[in-house]
């Protein structure tokens, strides 16, 4: 541990009195976050394992629909992430009342958005799927439509949970969100087992447990956020009414973040449409491979949350030297942890693949695309993911948005068509285009950090 401390500690001196987060405090945040992300990924693995027993058509159908639903989930996450930046900065400036108002408005905005998205998918989702995947086999499309109709009902719960979880993570109480997530995931896994093996309900057997587990998590999280004996909470008077000035402040961070996340996922959907032309085996390989990618990426996601909490508080306290010091330290820590974690995931992949009821060629494809992903997830993604979260927490939301648009929407999409379609590489080309996107984004983030311009932005 002392060796790790020496590796991650920046050479630039910072007085101990300005180090608002000790190593013990960082550890107390990171470990529950990682466990929570790991639980979600394990549930994802369990889902795909169980769904695989319903046939490759169901695996492919659920995978195609998941790419669309993730766009909406990213919208809810963007609002809660925007709110968490504002709340973190109010905590840093010791303005509790404004922090309570901001947290409550995040709930208000999240619920409004989620209800609108749910209505849209229930009314127009089926037609959207047919237009996006016109050449999809009938069995795959049936599974896709079934999953879409059911999971859309979970949107309000998803948004409420994300809002509450973001608030608790901003306060550094990540062990709470870990426990809530654990409870919801247990409900999900049990429900999946019943739906797939006992009821043999196919896509519906996975969809309904997802909906139920989200409402369990949202109910618990909302109840916790209303409790009075904590640093920041939410109140009914602020939740039920829209406060224009605070809403605009939150949306000033959330909208660029939403555009960034939505276009990112939209690009994935477009590439999903491309993948849908490769046949059921490659679709299934891509869907299952994404589950392993998510498992490998959970370290980066966890560190991104830590960046928002730490850098947001430093910026709120108007101590940008401390913010720079922590940016350097957390980036070094992200690289070290990502390297170890991705090696572990790569070693586990061949041991887990026999649990999937998939063809031999499909499994070989999965191994190859997971290897490509993990190599770059360990070496490049810490600079294109967690570091980007730190820049966003300091107020650089427009920069991170435009950098993502260029790297993901333009470069990844273009490279995917060149590698996957024109050069005939299929899903391997999709994977290569993704990691090249990370390289471009990492270069842009590093350049921004070294320029020092990120220190001049204000949120509150």
List key phrases describing it.
460 residues; mainly alpha; 17 helices; 0% strand
Notes on the protein architecture:
The protein has 17 helices and no strands. The two termini are about 35 Å apart. It has one domain (about 1-455). By secondary structure, the chain is mainly α. Helices cover about 80% and strands about 0% of the residues. It has helices at about 1-10, 25-50, 55-90, 95-130, 140-150, 155-170, 175-200, 205-225, 235-240, 245-275, 280-315, 320-350, 360-380, 380-385, 385-395, 395-420, 425-450.
Calculate Rg over CA atoms: 21 Å
Low-confidence stretches: none
Q: How many angstroms separate the termini?
A: 37 Å
Percent of residues in beta strands: under 5%
SSE-based structural type = mainly alpha
> What level of helicity do the residues show?
over 70%
Average of per-residue pLDDT values: 86
The structural domain count equals 1
Write the H/E string, N to C: HHHHHHHHHHHHHHHHH
Shape: globular
E-strand count: 0
> Biggest sheet, in brief?
none
Number of helices: 17
């Amino acid at each position: 541990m002392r060796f790790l401390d020496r590796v991650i500690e920046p050479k630039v001196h910072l007085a101990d009195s300005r180090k608002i987060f000790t190593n013990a405090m960082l550890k107390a945040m990171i470990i529950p976050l990682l466990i929570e992300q790991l639980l979600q990924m394990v549930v994802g693995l369990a889902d795909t394992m169980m769904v695989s027993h319903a046939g490759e058509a169901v695996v492919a159908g659920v995978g195609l629909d998941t790419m669309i639903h993730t766009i909406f989930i990213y919208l809810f996450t963007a609002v809660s992430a925007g709110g968490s930046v504002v709340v973190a900065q109010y905590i840093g400036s010791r303005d509790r009342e404004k922090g309570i108002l901001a947290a409550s408005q995040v709930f208000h905005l999240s619920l409004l958005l989620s209800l609108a998205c749910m209505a849209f998918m229930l009314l127009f989702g089926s037609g959207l799927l047919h237009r996006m995947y016109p050449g999809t086999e009938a069995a795959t499309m049936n599974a896709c439509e079934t999953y879409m109709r059911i999971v859309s009902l979970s949107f309000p719960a998803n948004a409420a949970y994300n809002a509450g979880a973001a608030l608790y993570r901003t306060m550094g109480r990540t062990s709470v969100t870990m426990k809530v997530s654990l409870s919801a995931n247990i409900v999900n896994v049990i429900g999946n087992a019943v739906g797939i093996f006992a009821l043999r309900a196919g896509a519906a057997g996975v969809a309904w447990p997802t909906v139920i587990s989200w409402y369990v998590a949202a109910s618990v999280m909302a109840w916790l956020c209303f409790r009075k004996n904590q640093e920041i909470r939410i109140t009914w008077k602020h939740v039920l009414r829209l406060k224009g000035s605070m809403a605009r402040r939150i949306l000033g961070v959330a909208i660029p973040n939403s555009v960034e996340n939505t276009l990112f996922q939209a690009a994935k959907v477009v590439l999903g449409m491309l993948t849908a032309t490769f046949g059921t085996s490659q679709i299934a390989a891509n869907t299952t491979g994404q589950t392993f990618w998510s498992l490998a990426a959970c370290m980066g996601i966890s560190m991104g949350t830590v960046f928002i909490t730490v850098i947001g508080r430093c910026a709120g306290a108007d101590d940008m030297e401390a913010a720079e010091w922590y940016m350097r330290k957390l980036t070094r820590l992200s690289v070290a942890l990502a390297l170890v974690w991705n090696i572990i995931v790569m070693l586990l992949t061949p041991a887990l693949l026999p649990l999937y009821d998939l063809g031999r060629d499909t499994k070989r494809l999965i191994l190859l695309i997971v290897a490509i992903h993990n190599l770059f997830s360990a070496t490049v993604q810490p600079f294109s993911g967690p570091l980007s979260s730190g820049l966003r927490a300091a107020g650089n939301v427009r920069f991170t948005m435009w950098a993502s648009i260029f790297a993901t929407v333009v470069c990844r999409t273009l490279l995917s068509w060149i590698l996957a379609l024109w050069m005939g590489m299929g899903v391997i080309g999709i994977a290569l285009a993704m990691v090249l996107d990370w390289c471009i984004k990492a270069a842009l983030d590093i350049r921004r950090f070294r320029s020092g311009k990120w220190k001049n932005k204000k949120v509150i």
